Inverse folding.
């Protein structure tokens, strides 16, 4: 059986993080970080294939985390799915500027999350 690809969920609201994890864990090897600093540390340790990244995080926001990943030559090809309740065009433009691969607005359906992750890591 093929080894599952790694997905790191960076989300400060644990119930949301674990709900996302439930959706993805059948198909992916899921781990969690609950703030931006922990997220950066785990990205470097685990080298996930994809990061499900919340925007509003303690210690380091999602834009900052995304930008840091893109600046690191060892990590910059990691796929990033930004998940947020902010759905203004400006928020999406900022996400694109810092290097997010895709954007998913909360609330979303479970299959939307799964489909977004699938598209990014084929």
């Amino acid at each position: 059986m093929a080894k599952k690809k790694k997905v790191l969920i960076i989300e400060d609201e644990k119930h949301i993080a674990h709900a996302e994890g439930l959706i993805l864990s059948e198909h992916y090897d899921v781990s969690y970080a609950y703030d931006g600093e922990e997220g950066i540390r785990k990205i470097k340790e685990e080298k996930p294939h994809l990061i499900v990244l919340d925007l509003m995080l303690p210690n380091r926001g999602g834009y900052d985390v995304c930008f840091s990943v893109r600046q690191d030559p060892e990590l910059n090809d990691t796929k990033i799915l930004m998940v947020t309740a902010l759905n203004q065009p400006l928020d999406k433009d900022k996400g694109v500027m810092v290097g997010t691969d895709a954007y998913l607005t909360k609330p979303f359906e479970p299959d939307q999350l799964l489909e977004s992750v699938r598209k990014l890591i084929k």
Summary: Strands lie at 6-10, 29-33, 50-54, 79-84, 102-105. The chain has one domain: 6-120. The chain has a mean pLDDT of 94. Residues 6-120 form a domain with the Rossmann fold fold (CATH 3.40.50.2300).
